[in-house]
């Protein structure tokens, strides 16, 4: 039963008892979130519905998450795929084996997956899996195989000294085996070649790479190969650490808190780089992306306790456990199921993640503060601080009683679910904090989107070549970004944001003069939605009426927007360059070649059009170029491969 079904049952039971109208009247008297939560927690109908559901949930949770037999079964499937050279299917089976594995079964799965990575020339992931196999008790009588593979990986990566050590260990282990004389001879020859290579390197003054002998040191190298978020174009604003000094937070009478430029900002400038305060991964990506940082991973590592999540590295796994996963461990499949296809489901999971990270002490401190004490202009606004998140507007006064009642039910349900193991009533403080965020997040949470790159079912010998038309945006999760949330909406925004894992980067897409406000777009752009639809949608979700220039002047949709017919010197060259860009090939994981050159080219076109006083915006060519520039910024960010069907 998902949350919608539970809520319908509660509503039906209340009407059946004839209490619906009275309860609505009593609930409307509640003026604070604490009062609303206490009222709902006192309703017997709610208690009975939750008690039945939580009892059934406990039965599912009691089922063991790990299984050596199931792990071995998946591992055999992976072996069969590997023999047929079906590498991606093989890795998928080994991933499933690893997620449910423990003991020797886990070690064997890591070892076998390392062989596939080795065949794919993914030396770092192969090396990491080899070390994880050793760490989980890989059988001693098979160790020589892994030592030899380890030596080959290290040699490919330039760790000659360590490679020599690994091959030496393999040779020593094989010496104990009576039927491995030829293998010993082969490895002895390999050791001789490595020794000669070391001598040549010394003569040339080439130093051996530093040691890489632990899982964490290998993973640091894996992380370095990812695309990292760009630096801010200026030094950090000390009061707004995720933003550059070119941006400041202001309080206004008519628009509330907003971000304003302290200097002229040029197109392309990176003005905000913000790591999510909290994030969640969508259910359909839990086997392909990291539960903690949202990066795609071909070879996940499991939680020590449950089989419901995967992590790109043990670093993410350990950070997640210390921060929040220890409280949700074993519950996630049920939480996904209960919130699946539910209107407020994502926001509920994100609110819960935020609360689990914060802890009871921080929750209590923030709930005790008066609104006047919360972050505003002139005060520190730190994305990592729970108080910053708690200060975001929830629009309680604009919400209907029915809306607040439903959100209160969800808050109490989530608190009951997460605390069911202690046998106590759900904590009022936790449910109150959840309710506060459930009101705030519809207006402040952001989707995390990566560009999805389709890949063939099996890897090629070279990087996969794709046309840009095959690359599409794909929502992989949701996050709370307090600083990004400060930007107000315009139907003609002057910035765009892209994601690097769970880090959001904001870049300028049209000139911003000193003192002007920095505007995001909340999903309704003048070129794609007419004014009536924009105003309706913005009012329903965000509770405001937009007075941006496209709304005041009722700018036309893209198809009705005029073209630069009288400026063929600009339009002809622009169209040609856009068509050339569309024909660019995209390599995974590198992305299109010369992408920075494309950024400079299209930034130049936007500058030219904005500087030409004979051109009156909007014009189609400007919209086109701006869209291409936004696509360039997205291509520079995180790419998530998806297998072709």
Brief summary of the model shown:
Helices cover 51% and strands 13% of the residues. It has 645 residues and is an alpha+beta fold. Strands 6-11-9-18 form a four-stranded mixed β-sheet.
- Helix fraction by DSSP (H/I, runs of at least 4): 40-55%
Which regions contain 5 or more consecutive residues with pLDDT less than 50?
none
**Number of DSSP helices?**
23
Strand content: 5-15%
Biggest pleated-sheet summary: 4 strands, mixed
The oligomeric status of these chains comes to single chain
| Sequence of strands across the biggest β-sheet | 6-11-9-18
**Global outline:** globular
Structural class: alpha+beta
Rg, alpha carbons = 28 Å
State the end-to-end CA separation: 31 Å
Rounded mean pLDDT score = 90
Number of strands: 18
SSE order and pairing:
Blueprint: H1 3-16, H2 20-29, H3 33-41, H4 44-61, H5 68-83, H6 87-100, H7 103-119, H8 123-135, H9 143-156, H10 160-175, H11 181-203, H12 215-224, E1 236-237, E2 240-244, E3 247-252, E4 256-261, E5 270-275, E6 278-281, E7 301-302, E8 310-311, H13 314-328, H14 332-339, H15 345-368, H16 386-390, H17 401-418, H18 428-444, E9 445-455, E10 464-467, E11 472-480, E12 488-489, E13 495-500, E14 503-508, E15 519-520, H19 531-542, H20 549-552, H21 568-582, E16 585-588, E17 591-592, H22 595-611, H23 620-636, E18 639-643
Parallel strand pairs: 9-18, 12-15
Antiparallel strand pairs: 1-2, 3-4, 5-14, 6-11, 7-8, 9-11, 10-16, 13-14, 16-17
Task: Describe the model.
The protein has 645 residues and is of the alpha+beta class. It contains 23 helices and 18 strands. Strands 6-11-9-18 form a four-stranded mixed sheet. Strands 5-14-13 form a three-stranded antiparallel sheet, covered by helices on one side. A three-stranded antiparallel sheet has the order 10-16-17, with no helix packed on it. Helix 5 runs antiparallel to helix 6 and helix 13 packs across helix 15 (345-368). The longest helix has 24 residues, at 345-368. The two termini are 31 Å apart.
